[in-house]
């Protein structure tokens, strides 16, 4: 940090060091105080100002930090007497960069470089800015200037790397590479090269120009000695020789590499390519996908004579035998894979022997068949065999079962490999359909015969389950973090059951698959394969909340967000879980945006550490992420989601549209990426077979017959993805702009009102909306007029909705925007009876809001003619009809929901269980489940170990079925997120068997006691099957409250957080947190809490305590619960989190702390407090003495045994208000009273009349 002579930015270092120490220890308030003191002594120091800005930025005060930075920048520009050094500039750069104003930092450096022409430190800082901006040309120019000043090798290499980046990522061409080569040659002539990385850069420049001979000459000369690791030098030499076409020499080089590294499989393939003079790999190498490398590259050695071809393969075989003999490690697979590859090459040239390949495959199985990688190792080799020979290979494996390993773990591994090979060959898929009956041809593991029904396929799943159960004792001593022996078997059994469902459409198979996976995760909760399968199975069933919960349990972080999010994102985009989708998109986009920024830091570090190959790698990786199809789609969907979430408020909607700049630029998003190639970074290998890509699901289609095998169609399914994604991006990019234009057109529909209010209407809006509608229709595959006819026909009932195909939402979007355009332009001449009042309700509701708003007086001066009465105008009638139509749609949905919830929960659970849990049944769904049930009933602590046996005993298939019925895996209930000033309308449907009310704990129910909730005080309870709608407004409250049942002890399980944010435009009175999270401390009861209450009331004794404490519904691993999940909040070091802690326990005061951290309390009971720091909190204060100055606002207080508390309040709210002990056991004993506040004078001091649906007693 310090510059020369103990000075820092022109200030003595001793004055600056304490500030940096305070910043490093995150004592920002102290740092700010020290900064103020420094500025009082050095008021015109840009460095002192930069330090203050850095502190403010770290405190979350971005606007203040930017203002201070700009003041420092102005000083640098206008005051020639101030010191302009690298330390000041770099500190400013840090702040500007964190505030997303790197351009301002660059301008400071550019000004400084112009003022101090040969200051190397400042020039390096400027180069660093250009690196972060990815300004490759300016990087090159700056680096060459530095090289000319000092002649250092590193600056020359910086310039050369910048040139290479222009060629790889920009528009640079051959001339630039010639320039780079010339610069390097000139430097070598005068200075030589001194770093290994410098040699690699020089070779790469020559290689990019296809000057392989020159590169080989450099490598074999004096400079080649810079590469001290011989194998690295040989690999480069082999590659250059192969590219130059000197295959014989290249083969010798690769042979030397293999002698040193016998398990280098890629090297052996290169060796074989060179022996056979096959340049296919080298020709295709630039096209190879490093994220999804092809398993096979098309080979071509047809130019060799048969004699030469066989002779060279014989040499390769002899070399492989030599490597096998010399390998002293049983885990070295390459020399044995080499034999398989040799036989495969023969097959590709039409000179192979199927029996010989089968023989080599058998040898490989006996040596490595127990490894989990065996099936993937041989997949490519099996592909060259005809189907009959594949079956012959499988039959030989089955016959050799007697000679399998006697070691239990190896025997298990070999047995699993047999199942995998059967799946690879495709036997499990090739099931012919004869009329309505299914005839399954599958090779039995014990008998080679064919069956005329699908029972044998079912038996395969049964055997997998039996094998899993039999080998479970092998894992009894393993830690829960370690992979269990044979855990793949449950995944494989699940896949077979899904296949059976696909063919038979018996839902029981699908539910059975879910059961075995849920059981597997109970035994070991870290099996990510099970979780991914459940994510997709629950999504298919429409249980999106369960799917999302399992996805969250994967704890996907960092770069995995890019490669794994495809498992949940497409499903969430079509689900109603908008709040959860918002979290998914927010987390994903935050990581991607942060990573794109951090990649610049990594690139800068690579330059400084002289790791130039990493410079290229980091930039190319950044380019790959930036062009990710998933990233681009998420950037589109995030703002559209915000529009959907706020569609009930047109003013907020317009603010969002304005922030998106939808008025001008948003539709051009698709044009922006038009010329760029999209990247696909998803790990598709982890997807289940039935959904190989996000937009394909075989289960939604009929079984495709005998010859179909999904594994063989994976590459074919993925080929057309880019075109489909581009179409989707273009389509979705139009939506925000069309929403904005639709609002404007709808507003313009009331022309009389517009003229009366003096507003202006731009006719270009209508024409632009038509242009976008034509573009949208084209994407849907129709000319504009034809698309109109489709919409009108479907909505009027003249055409079937099948005309929309699978694009129903897109067509309905088109219809909504078409309706808005017609309202403004009247070009179609459609009447309101033609049906232009469709879904999606969000956008349609916005258009209605826009029309209603336009119909209201604007408050401006009216024209002399006065306002026009529009209450009976055609458009007003249309608005009225549209509102009634929306209400009708909601009523229809409500009726449907009532029908669905009429059945009791237990009845629905029984329906699910009966689909597969029938003991008398010997075929069909349930056979695999019975195997696992037998395991549970016969479990032994001695045989399986205490952990596994206790876990099995705690598992309940009924709980899984109940979870499917309720659609919720999480407990407690949903968090309600509102703002101060919001009006809440909450309809409660009582599907339980008890009377219930809900209480909004801590809410000031101003004149609305009917919404307060205490049973038999402010309302009678909601009876089972009945409903009641709570209506109330949040008035002058911010912070954390909660809601809970207020009937007997039902709040033991019925509760959730109620978060009140500040009004829009307001902020917290403390630094903005990076994250917020509710923490609900609760309890779990194995018994019905009402039964516990009855027992206590009957005996007069204290009630039994709960069976577990929970945090956000999770008990951790301290209790014998069926679920042992722990609530987790992923954070990065240094981030600030706002925890909203709620004690929702029935009868306990609870303590809370975070290990090795201090907590700053900033609020309680929806009121801000004087911040104070503590390490532990008890939820509920004890008052030691009177506080008459600034007493805290509370809705609940704790009173210790023998203690006291004093409260005061103003009786300004008429109604009946219950005051009671919030320990429910005491409430049962009668610790409760009522304050009756009578009406005052006037309407605003009187309670509102009771609502019509207030439950009767």
From TrEMBL:
Its cofactor is Cu cation. It is found in: Secreted, Extracellular space, Apoplast. CDD domains: CuRO_1_LCC_plant, CuRO_2_LCC_plant. It holds the Pfam family Cu-oxidase. Keywords: Apoplast, Copper, Lignin degradation, Metal-binding, Oxidoreductase, Repeat, Secreted, TPR repeat. Its EC number is 1.10.3.2. It is an enzyme of class 1 (oxidoreductase). Signal peptide: none annotated. Residues 959-1063, 1077-1181 form the Plastocyanin-like domain. It comes from the Eukaryota. TPR repeats lie at residues 231-264. It catalyses: 4 hydroquinone + O2 = 4 benzosemiquinone + 2 H2O. Belongs to the multicopper oxidase family. PANTHER family: LACCASE-13 (PTHR11709:SF68), MULTI-COPPER OXIDASE (PTHR11709). This is laccase. The lineage of its organism: Eukaryota, Viridiplantae, Streptophyta, Embryophyta, Tracheophyta.
């Amino acid at each position: 940090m310090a510059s020369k002579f103990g000075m820092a930015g022109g200030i003595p270092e001793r004055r600056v060091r304490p500030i940096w120490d305070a910043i490093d220890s995150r004592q920002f308030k102290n740092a700010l105080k020290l900064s103020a003191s420094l500025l009082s002594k050095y008021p015109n120091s840009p460095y002192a100002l930069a330090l203050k800005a850095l502190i403010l930025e770290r405190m979350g005060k971005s606007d203040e930090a930017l203002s201070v930075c700009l003041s420092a920048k102005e000083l640098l520009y206008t005051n020639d007497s101030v010191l302009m050094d690298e330390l000041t500039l770099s500190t400013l750069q840090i702040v500007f960069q964190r505030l997303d104003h790197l351009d301002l930092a660059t301008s400071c450096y550019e000004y400084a470089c112009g003022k101090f022409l040969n200051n190397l430190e400042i020039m390096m800082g400027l180069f660093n800015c250009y690196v972060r901006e990815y300004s490759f040309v300016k990087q090159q120019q700056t680096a060459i200037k530095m090289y000319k000043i000092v002649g250092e090798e590193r600056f020359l290499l910086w310039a050369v790397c910048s040139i290479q980046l222009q060629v790889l990522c920009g528009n640079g061409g051959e001339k630039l590479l010639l320039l780079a080569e010339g610069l390097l040659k000139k430097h070598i002539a005068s200075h030589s090269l001194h770093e290994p990385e410098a040699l690699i850069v020089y070779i790469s420049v020559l290689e990019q120009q296809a000057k392989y001979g020159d590169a080989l000459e450099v490598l074999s000369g004096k400079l080649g000695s810079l590469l001290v690791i011989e194998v690295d030098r040989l690999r480069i030499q082999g590659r250059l020789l192969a590219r130059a076409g000197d295959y014989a020499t290249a083969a010798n080089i690769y042979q030397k590499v293999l002698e040193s590294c016998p398990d280098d499989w890629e090297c052996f393939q290169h060796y074989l390519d060179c022996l056979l003079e096959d340049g296919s790999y080298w020709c295709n190498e630039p096209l190879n996908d490093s994220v999804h490398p092809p398993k096979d590259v098309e080979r071509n050695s047809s130019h060799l004579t048969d004699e030469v071809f066989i002779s060279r393969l014989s040499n390769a075989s002899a070399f492989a035998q030599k490597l096998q003999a010399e390998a002293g490690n049983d885990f070295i697979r390459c020399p044995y894979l080499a034999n398989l590859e040799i036989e495969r090459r023969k097959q590709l040239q039409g000179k192979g022997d199927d029996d010989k390949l089968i023989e080599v495959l058998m040898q490989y199985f006996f040596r490595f068949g127990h490894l989990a990688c065996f099936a993937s190792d041989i997949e490519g080799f099996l592909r060259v065999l005809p189907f009959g020979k594949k079956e012959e290979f499988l039959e030989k494996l089955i016959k050799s079962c007697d000679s399998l390993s006697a070691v239990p773990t190896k025997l298990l591994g070999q047995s699993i490999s047999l199942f995998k090979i059967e799946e690879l060959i495709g036997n499990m898929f090739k099931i012919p359909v004869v009329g309505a009956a299914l005839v399954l041809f599958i090779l039995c593991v014990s008998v080679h015969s064919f069956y005329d029904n699908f029972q044998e396929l079912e038996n395969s799943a049964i055997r997998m389950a039996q094998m899993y159960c039999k080998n479970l004792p092998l894992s009894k001593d393993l830690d829960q973090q370690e992979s269990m022996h044979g855990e793949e078997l449950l995944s494989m059994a699940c896949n077979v059951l899904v296949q059976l469902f696909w063919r038979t459409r018996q839902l029981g198979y699908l539910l059975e698959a879910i059961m075995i996976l849920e059981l597997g995760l109970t035994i070991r909760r870290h099996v990510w394969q099970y979780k991914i399968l459940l994510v997709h199975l629950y999504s298919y069933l429409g249980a999106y909340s369960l799917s999302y919960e399992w996805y969250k349990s994967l704890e996907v972080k960092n770069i995995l967000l890019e490669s794994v999010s495809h498992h949940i994102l497409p499903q969430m985009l079509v689900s109603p879980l908008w709040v959860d989708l918002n979290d998914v998109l927010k987390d994903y986009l935050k990581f991607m945006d942060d990573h794109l920024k951090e990649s610049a830091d990594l690139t800068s570090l690579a330059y400084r550490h002289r790791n130039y190959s990493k410079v290229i790698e980091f930039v190319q990786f950044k380019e790959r992420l930036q062009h990710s199809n998933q990233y681009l789609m998420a950037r589109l969907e995030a703002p559209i989601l915000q529009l959907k979430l706020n569609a009930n408020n047109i003013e907020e909607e317009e603010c969002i549209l304005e922030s998106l700049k939808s008025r001008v630029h948003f539709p051009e998003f698709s044009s922006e990426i038009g010329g760029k190639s999209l990247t696909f970074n998803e790990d598709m290998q982890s997807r289940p077979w039935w959904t190989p890509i996000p937009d394909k699901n075989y289960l939604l289609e009929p079984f495709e017959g005998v010859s179909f095998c999904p594994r063989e169609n994976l590459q074919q399914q993925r080929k057309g993805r880019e075109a489909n994604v581009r179409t989707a991006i273009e389509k979705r990019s139009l939506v925000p702009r069309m929403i904005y234009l639709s609002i404007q057109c709808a507003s313009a529909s009331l022309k009389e009102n517009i003229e009366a209010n003096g507003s202006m209407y731009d006719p270009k809006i209508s024409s632009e909306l038509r242009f976008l509608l034509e573009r949208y229709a084209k994407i849907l595959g129709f000319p504009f007029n034809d698309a109109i006819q489709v919409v009108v026909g479907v909505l009027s009932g003249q055409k079937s909705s099948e005309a929309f195909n699978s694009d129903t939402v897109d067509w309905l979007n088109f219809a909504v925007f078409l309706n808005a355009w017609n309202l403004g332009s009247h070009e179609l001449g459609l009447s309101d009876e033609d049906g232009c009042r469709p879904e999606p309700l969000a956008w349609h509701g916005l258009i209605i809001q826009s029309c209603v708003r336009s119909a209201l007086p604007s408050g401006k001066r009216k024209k002399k003619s006065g306002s026009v009465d529009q209450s009976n105008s055609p458009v007003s009638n249309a608005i009225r009809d549209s509102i009634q139509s929306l209400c009708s749609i909601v009523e229809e949905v409500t009726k449907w929901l009532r029908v669905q919830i009429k059945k009791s929960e237990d009845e629905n659970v029984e329906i699910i269980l009966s689909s597969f849990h029938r003991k008398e049944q010997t075929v069909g769904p349930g056979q695999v489940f019975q195997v696992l049930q037998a395991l549970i009933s016969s479990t032994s602590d001695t045989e399986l170990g205490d952990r596994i046996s206790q876990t099995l005993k705690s598992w309940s298939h009924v709980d899984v079925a109940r979870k499917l019925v309720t659609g919720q895996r999480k407990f407690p209930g949903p968090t309600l997120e509102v703002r101060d000033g919001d009006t809440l309308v909450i309809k409660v449907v009582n599907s339980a068997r008890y009377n219930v009310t809900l209480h909004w704990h801590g809410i000031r129910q101003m004149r609305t006691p009917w919404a307060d909730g205490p049973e038999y005080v402010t309302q009678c309870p909601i009876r089972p099957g009945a409903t009641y709608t709570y209506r109330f407004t949040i008035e002058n409250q911010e912070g954390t409250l909660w809601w809970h049942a207020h009937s007997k002890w039902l709040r033991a399980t019925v509760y959730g957080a109620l978060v009140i944010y500040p009004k829009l435009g307001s902020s917290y009175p403390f630094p903005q947190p990076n994250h917020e999270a509710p923490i609900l401390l609760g309890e779990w009861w194995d018994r019905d809490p009402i039964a516990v209450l009855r027992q206590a009331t009957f005996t007069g004794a204290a009630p039994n305590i709960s069976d577990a404490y929970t945090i956000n519904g999770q008990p951790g691993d301290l209790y014998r619960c069926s679920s042992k999940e722990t609530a987790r909040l992923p954070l990065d070091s240094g981030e600030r989190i706002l925890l909203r802690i709620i004690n929702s326990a029935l009868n306990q005061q609870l303590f809370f702390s975070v290990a090795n951290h201090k907590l700053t309390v900033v609020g309680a009971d929806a009121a801000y407090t004087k911040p104070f720091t503590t390490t532990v909190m008890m939820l509920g204060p004890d008052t030691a003495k009177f506080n008459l100055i600034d007493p805290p606002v509370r809705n609940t207080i704790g009173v210790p045994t023998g203690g006291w508390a004093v409260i005061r309040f103003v009786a300004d709210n008429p109604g009946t208000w219950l005051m009671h002990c919030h320990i429910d056991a005491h409430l049962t004993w009668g610790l409760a009273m009522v304050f009756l506040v009578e009406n005052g004078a006037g309407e605003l001091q009187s309670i509102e009349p009771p609502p019509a649906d207030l439950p009767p007693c």
